Queue: 2 jobs
Job 1
Amino acid sequence: MDPDNIDIEAVGSQVTTFMGQAQVWLAAFLERALSIAMLWQVGIIIAAAAIGWLASRVPRRMLLHVAEKYAAAVMYSRFCRSFAKVSWPLISVILIWCAAFGFSLAGLPYEGLRIVGSLMNAWIVVRLMTLNMRETIWSTLFAVIAWTVAALFILHLLQPTLDLLRSTHVAGTKINALTLLANILIAIAALWLGRVAGDAAQIKLRSTRQLNPSTAGLLGQVTKIVVIGFAVVVALQSIGVPLGALAVFSGALGVGIGFGLQSIFSNFISGVIILFEKSVKVGDFIELPSGVTGLVNEINIRSTLVTTNDNVDILVPNEEFIKAQVINWTLREARRRIRVPFGVAYGTDKDLVRQAGLEAAAEVNWTLENMGPRAPQVWLVGFGDSSLDFELVVWLNEEAVKKPSKVKADYNWALHTALERHNIEIPFPQRDLNLKPPGPIRVRIEPQDAPAQADPETEKAPEE
């Protein structure tokens, strides 16, 4: 652009016009901001905040108490805590909107109350969604929607925007985009509420005392699936999918179960069999075919959660409990017998060894009390290459069966201490080494004072 062609007078005129409009806008803003009506609105907002803070103390305390009382119901407790956190702004915004309604009836301006109320509405919605939604994408979506609606309402553009959405034309066809968006939001809300309700029902069933943990866990999973399935039907109907299409989809799903989903369906049936047979229950201590041992924490529709003593969670498909050989150490009786092998040197008094072994068993807390016929015993089980082989045979109490590694370590420790106390030797492996020379060796004895001389015949083996 050539600087010589710039019309200085035109630019100056535009700047003057803009400055004049800015002065008009600023004067109008100051006139409204410093008006008596605006001062009244600011005072009402401050009073609503103060009254809301005082009035929210009691419900906030009650909601937090309910959340702590029903901490086991995670979703319900989370709702109570979230409403406790927004109780102050919630009461304040109710008072602000009541004041705005009163101003409108009296014919007084209430623009300040409307702006503050809209912003607080959006903030409360965003806060509740953020506290109760674990997925960031959904909370972000609701935040964008809430702030957009608030901005349009403040700028008096909400109604024109709604009218525009109602009369949207796509490829010459009139489409009610507002209804479509509303149906999509209803579908999303239905899916979210279905999942929340399913989780709440599952937690409630698992916490009930009338059902055993295994039954409660599986029923909770089934209830969750039914609730989510109902939510899916509501969501599909809200966006206009007919029930006939759902029937076709169900048939296709059945074919999918027969082919691609047969493994999942097999695990589900296996879970039902486990539930009715009660071969594995929540709280049982089991040993998997791989040798891993652990405690059954959950029996779900597809898999069972097993937690080892190292706090490692293992998800085992339910059909593994039907097909493979799984050892349940606590199926009928948790008490069991273990054998702790040890060896002593040949020549050791066997009665002294028995005494040391029984003393070691008595010192370990895992040994069964009131033993009777299940008293500890010391058996001589073999004659090793360098030791007499014994076994300490002990019956364990119910808690010991869940800690096999620690139990064996404790008995080994006590055995070593008892053997040392009685001066019983734990032998090392002994071997006899016989050297067979290839031929005769000649030895010559020299006088002690004479210097040693090398004899070539003794340094080299005779040749044959």
Note: The chain is about 60% helix and 10% strand.
Job 2
Amino acid sequence: MTRKNNRFAVWLFSLALIIPMGLSGQQEGEGYEVGAALPPIDPDRIRVEISLEDAIARALEMNLDVQSVRLNPQIQQYSLQAAQAAFDPTMSATYGYNNSTNQSTSQLDGGLQTSTMRQTYNASINKPTPWYGGRLSASFNNNRTETDNTFSTLPLSYRSTLSLNYTQPLLAGRKTDNQRTSLETTVIQGDNSDIQLDAQIANIAYLIQVSYWGLRAAIEQIEIQNQNLIQAQDLLEQNRIRVQIGTMSDLQMLQAEAQVANAEQSRLGAEIQWRNQELSFKRLLVGGPNDPLLAQTLIPTSAPTLVFQEPDIDAAVAIALEQRTDLRQSRNNREISSLNLAVTNNNTRPDLNLTAAYSVQGTGGDRYQRVGLGGELELVEPGGYTSGLRSLLDRNTPTWSINLNFSYPIGNKGSRASLRRAELQLEQTDLSIRSQELGVVIEVTNAALNVRDTFLLLEAAQRSREVSERAAEVEATRFGVGASTNYEVTQARDALTSARLSELRAIINYVNAVAEFELVQYIG
């Protein structure tokens, strides 16, 4: 358990390396700064600042899916206890009463008719042993018998018998059996439950990160579209003045009004996207429909770091092949298949059981002797139930027995067919794991290459945005001196807005690519 926790701690530490280290924004002209945007103000909603670390911590505590998966190890623990119960001892007890009267058929019967009353008190305990498939049993049987038979020397007798038995399989059932296989399988399934919990926690942390940056991007898009709207309104105001003084036609005025309408529509679309993204993010954070966070406005305060580190593909592949949760579960399932193969192979062997038994008995009661045939009873030795127990403890009447029982179905085709099927299934499992390992290598390699590619795209997007900023500034200057038209200014500003949005997407894509690269090394 400690080793698994250490592996999971390494993954969380790797995740921490890509958690924000402060704002990395840069001026993009006209007062816009990446990471400084705030969501729209709603006076009826409380605004709550939340960092990425706090979001992950809250989700791991409150998320309903995580809470559900956390119960699996506990459920599996009870399954293990149920499997262990197969080796618990079983105690049984019986009481019997019998009263019979028989007609005499011989002068040796001791009377015209004889009556016998018998009571039995028996107790036994049985226990399968967890080693070598043996079974141990012990029984303690007692009976009280009272008879009026003339020839009986014990009219009232007490008989006690103590028996010990042990049965040991010598062929089938010695190395393994269904009960021991079930117990070992349950232990492995418990390990799988722990692995699934680790995977769910890591996956939720990853989803929180992706959703967090998605929320930050949605807020930034509102600010970008708002900047575009401000510029369109400013252009419209300038055009209105020029129309009034007669230096611009009404057509250009209409074009500017259309540009404002388009900008307003784009900003509204960004706000709708933000609301949807915020709800999606909250879905991961809240613990139920009454969580107050649902009625609050979230302000993400973290910003990603954009320092590029070349992914070590070979090291990442080695880690993934050893620690990926899907591979660990597949290997555990392969071990379960191996256990099933072993018990199937064991079932093809003949049944040869060695049974050893030992018993001792004691008899007690008042012992009588008759004077002559059919004479009066004469007490020889007084006794009772305790005298029978003393006789038992003296072990004067032991019985030993050893038996060998053999059975084997002729041909045994059914067991042999099951064995061959299990062998082929295990071979199929091995091939499946090899294919899975190949898929992991490809997935990790693609994730590493994606980190590199998204960073290159980010650099290209930053250069494009810088060029678009300069072009927009030039067109604005030219328009101020009458050397440019509405159309050219609008085209330049649309290009700037598009470049800003492209850069924002590139930032989010890069951050998510780094997070995915860390995730695929441990979770599958």
Note: Confidence is low (pLDDT under 50) at residues 1-30.
